[in-house]
Amino acid sequence: MRSHPLDPPTPAEIELAVAAVRADGRAGVRPRFWGITLDEAHARKVVAGDASGVRFGLVVMAPGAGAWEVDVALDDAGATAVAWRDVDPRRPGITSDEARAAAQACRESPLFQEVMARRGIHDVSLCMVDAESMGGFEEKYAGRRVTWGTVWHRTDIEDNGYARPVQGVVPIIDMATMEVLDVEDHGVIPVSEEAGPLTTGAFGPDREGLKPLDVVQPEGPSFSVDGWQVDWQGWKFRVGFTHREGLVLYDLEFQGRSVLKRAACNEMYVPYLDSNSTQYRKNFFDWGEYGAGPLTNSLALGCDCLGVIYYFDGTHLGGYGDPVGIQNAICMHEEDASILWKHNDLRRGVSEVRRSRRLIISNFQTVANYDYGFYWTLYQDGRIELEVKLTGLLSASGIEEGAEAPYGRIVSKNVQTPIHQHYFGIRLDTAIDGSLNRLVEEHAEGEKDPALNPYGNAVRYVREPLTVEGGQRNDPSIARHWRIESAEKTNRYGDPTAYRLVIPNTTRSFGLPESVMSRRAPFIHQHVWATPYAEDEQFIGGQYPNHAEPGEDGVHVWQEQQRSIDGVPLVVWPVLGVHHLPRPEQWPVMPVEAIHLVLEPDGFFDRNPALDIPDPAAARGSGSSCCS
Fold first, then answer.
1. What is the pLDDT averaged over residues 378-385?
2. N- to C-terminal Cα distance for the chain?
């Protein structure tokens, strides 16, 4: 049941919306769907009392006949498709159902079977084919909705196919007809004989000596949940789940004051930096071309999450119109986070210390070989962190034994893993002490006036208000960070109340300016973008990146309007990045590599807001302090 206008679509609502689309008839007997999206702007109007009901947007395809965005209105009378807008039929994202169908089409193709036989592979039922977006390399397939496949071979059904890449075999599939148009063969390279099992005991006996580590909260967790709303230690917010972004947080308040209206990982772009025949096309908008919702994991207690856990289930729209449930899609739990603050008074022999508690809201997506975890963390001092955890299996290609891998690393016999990058475009609809905000860049500079700096040690911080939309690059060498300020509220020192944005993990593109990767995702060329909120500017890399003309849409296009961002409803778009030169220690599965974003109060409070945290010893009922 819907308890709030911002709640995600329920299975019943999805069924009603799909039925309304089908009832129109123009999408045919068996249409395909790419996602259902809550109309959040309408939901906000409902919250404000200016509208009623619920509205959804669906993307529907009738292969060979067209594609549309459809607005569906739901109220007590039922569901009605109220608007249809034409979409280029090449442009909707690839559904999981389509990806499976494309892989099966390859296995049934005589041409594919012939190419695999040249490599001594005759049972193609054991071949894995991942449907990859064409990503700016349409070339002679312009005008078609096509995909290409990376191919892997398993020795049996239990084998880890990603350990055995089939180099140089590239099937091209028409996604409308599921016809295999071509199978490129760039020459036979032996498929690796080495397995990459991930099951316990596969590489010898399990490590001994690991004792149980249990998280026990005998009185239960400190948070409360009402539907999708959460209260914890002064924080109040709503959890959401969308087809495109997966986990979303809405209306974050701390101690009764607004901080963020919306927060999510908005897009992920992954370019590969190897020119070999199996790798050069690889550059993906994982969210815009596949969708985080359908790729979301069902999480397991004791494995993905440890402690006293609250789970939110997710639902997304399947490729053929059915609601698909994901049990335990989002995990929420508390963790001890070491010291919150401490001081040991040596003169008086008195120590005061408080332990930090944090609340983590997380989910995991699996994009073929890679796995990504998104951990939004709230702290008792008002800090917000996003930690992105990268793990899973590296996307490998085959290599001749004894050959060099100039654009990657050899990790197994006949296997090399290419250099690549991961860019995470984050969307923050800010609400620092109200709806009107501004952005200020701050950095350190040594005092240049010798009269003011006689000892050479004076360093001032320099404020540069950013009054017009655009992008900026990170620069740790000058301690660069950004303040998101209220345009209406000040603290007792007369400064605007604010939060500080710090992005310690960034990288840059190494692609040549004319390369597809440089032109296709221009948002990666800056580390922080800022725009005024606009209802139709939802995704940093553009609404429909699949088969898009490189660079035609996205934040780099919007900012050409040169709109004011001084005292407006503001959207800040940080871009986290990692340049990944693989290590042999990341094979056959990658230990977690974590990158971060930090939002912390900066003049939002007049003093430390965590002075009211109880003494940990007294909180345990011992009646004394930690160091008495």
1. 98
2. 52
Report d(CA 328, CA 308) in Å as an integer: 14
What's the CA gap between 172 and 181, in Å, rounded? Answer: 6
Confidence of residue 134 (pLDDT cuts 50, 70, 90): very high
Distance CA 110, CA 293 (A): 34
The CATH code belonging to domain 96-185 is 3.10.450.40
Specify the DSSP element, H or E, that contains 106: helix 96-108
Same fold, 11-87 and 231-393+420-580+589-618: no
- CATH fit for domain 11-87, picks 1.10.287, 3.10.450, 3.30.160, 1.10.260: 3.10.450
| pTM exceeding the 0.90 threshold for the entire prediction | yes
3-state secondary structure of 628: coil
Average pLDDT over residues 544-552: 96
Q: Which residues, 6+ apart, have CB-to-CB distance to 387 below 8 Å?
A: 373, 374, 375, 377, 594, 595, 596
| pLDDT more than 90, % of the chain | 95
Active site residues: 286, 370
Q: What is the DSSP string of 210-265?
A: --------TT--S-EEETTEEEETTEEEEEEEETTTEEEEEEEEETTEEEEEEEEE
Tell me which residue has tokens 């890679």: 370
For the chain, what are the domain ranges?
11-87, 96-185, 231-393+420-580+589-618
**Is the backbone peptide bond immediately before 450 cis, with ω within 30 degrees of 0?**
no
Q: Which superfamily is assigned to 231-393+420-580+589-618 in CATH?
A: Copper amine oxidase, catalytic domain (2.70.98.20)
Contact 223, 378 (CB under 8 A): no
Interhelix angle 96-108/110-117, rounded to 10 degrees, is 70
